[in-house]
Design brief:
CATH architecture: 3-Layer(aba) Sandwich
Number of strands: 7
CATH class: Alpha Beta
Largest sheet: 7 strands, parallel
CATH superfamily: NAD(P)-binding Rossmann-like Domain
Strand content: 5-15%
Strand order of the largest sheet: 3-2-1-4-5-6-7
Number of domains: 1
CATH topology: Rossmann fold
Length: 268
Amino acid sequence: MSIGDVVRPLTGRVALVTGASKGLGAAIAATLAEDGADLAVMGRDRGRLESVAAGLDHDWPGRQSLALDSDVTDAERVDAAVASVIRHFGRLDILVNAHGVIGPIETPAEAVTPDAFRAVLEANVVGVFLTCRAAIPHLTRGPSGRIVNVAGTSGLRGYRNRVAYSSSKWAVRGLSRTLALELGRHGVTVNTVCPNVTHGDRMDTIIAEKARKQGKSAEAVYADYVAETALGRFIDDADVTAAVRFLVSEGARNITGHDIAVDAGWDV
C-alpha cells in the first residue's frame, strides 16, 4: 500500500470551523483537512474564506471545502450557514468554535464601557452558543459527534485588566460542560481547548497595547509573559491544533466536559 492509499482518520466526516479565515481557525481547518475531513470554513471575510477553502482543496485533494460568510452573533445567519453545510455535504460530524474577539486590553473594569463588555460576550459566548445550538440536531444523528470550543487560560483563573475577555472564556467553559452533560446520551463529546499566549498577529496586538499602556518595550512585555510559564516560552498554533486533532479523534471518545490547557505550564 502506498502513502497515497492510506485512509486518513477523518475521511468521510464533515467539520465546521468558525473563525477560519485566518490565524488559529485557519490552522485548525488545515489540520482537519489533512486528516481527511470535508471542511466548512466560516467567518465574516468572504474573500479570505474562499482563499482558505481553495488552499485546503489544493493541499489535501480527494475531499471538499465550503466557504461560508456569516456572523456568529446573528442567529438567522448561523442557522442558514449550518443549513448550507447540510445541503452541501449531507451531514455534520465536528464543530470547532475558533472565533473570538480580544476586547479591551490593559483596561481596569471600571474603565470598560457596558457596550464594550457586551460586544465581547456577544461574539465569544453568544456566538459559541448559537453555532452549537444550530449544529446539535445534526451532530446527534451520528454515533460520535464532536464539539471543541476554543476557550483560553484566561478562563482558568482571573486575568487582571481583561475583565470582558476573561469573563467570556469562563462562560465558554461553563457552556461546554453543560452541553457535555446534555449531549452525552447521543455519543457527542464536548470539550474546550485553552491556549495560553500564542505566537501570531493577535498576541502581537495585545503585547503592543500592553507595552503602550505600561510604558514598557514590547520585548519587556513578552518577557513578562514568558516568565509566567514553566517551560519559558509561548506556544504555536500547531500546539493547539494537535489538541483539537486529538479531541475529535476516536482516541478521545471517552473524554467530555473537560478543558485541555495548552499553555507551556502557565496554569500549574
